[in-house]
Amino acid sequence: MKTQVVIIGFGTMGKAIAKAIAKKDRQIVIFGIDKDKPNMKKIIQKVSEADFIILSVKPQDAKEVIMGIKNYLNKKTILISIMAGVSIKELIRLSGHRKIVRMMPNLGLSVGQGIAVWKQTGLSSLEFKKAKNFINKISDNFEIKNEDTINKVTAISGSGPAYFFLLADSLVKASSKLGLNKNESRKLVEKTLLSSALLGNQGDYASLIKKVASKGGTTESALKVFQKENFSGIILKAVVAAYKRAQELSNG
User: Fold this and answer.
1) In this structure, how many other beta carbons lie within 10 angstroms of the beta carbon of residue 161?
2) Residues pairing with 121 in the sheet
3) Which of 6, 84, 160, 217 is most exposed, with minimal Cβ within 10 Å?
4) How confident is the model at residue 39 (pLDDT cuts 50, 70, 90)?
5) How far is it, in rounded angstroms, from Cα 28 to Cα 108?
6) Same structural domain for residues 76 and 175?
7) Is 32 helix (H, G, I), strand (E, B) or coil?
8) pLDDT per position as a tens digit, 41-83
9) Is residue 149 situated within a structural domain?
10) Taking the CB of residue 110, how many other CB atoms lie within 10 A of it?
11) d(Cα 92, Cα 212) in Å, to the nearest integer?
12) Cα 110 vs. chain centroid, distance in angstroms?
């Protein structure tokens, strides 16, 4: 019998999850729901039959979406939320449902390079195994014990792709300022970021920096500017801001 999955919120992350699942298992049937274009009769049927329901909407839409489906949830259904800042306690309160998984994936799953953390409540040992196997089809992952860890992970890997895109965009703009055209700049930056990610497996980051930055060379000159401008401090400040925002959302 095929596994029935409903993804509510079929935007960037919802579609990415669907794509990741489809690559791993043809026995999983996915029904994606665009929150803004509901077909309630069909939605009610799919929700009531679902093995898994994935909530992929914005945190501010949590109450509206959950209230719309709560009366049709099947007791066997496992409800998975990827919403930042919406706690398990709040998910239970809104839905009246007990089988809950709160997960924080990132956009890397759309290209087979995702990482996610998750915490569950209300699952039997058999349901836990079922949920774990299902999550494995979505992304590389690990279970955590403390729910606040999800807020921390949100600030690192959940939001993290945007930090790297900002760096990439800044490098492209800097390259253009030096006189290279946009296509050349983009190709240089993309290859550099991709190769750097792969090289990252070859040692700790401090050692790898030293491999690139020879004494008195060009890289060392650039790194001195980063150090002077407190680059690491800026990153920490940004990550802490994201973490605090996730906590604020969790606290309502």
Assistant:
1) 12
2) 100
3) 217
4) low
5) 21
6) no
7) strand
8) 778 889 999 999 999 999 999 999 999 899 999 999 999 999 9
9) no
10) 18
11) 51
12) 10
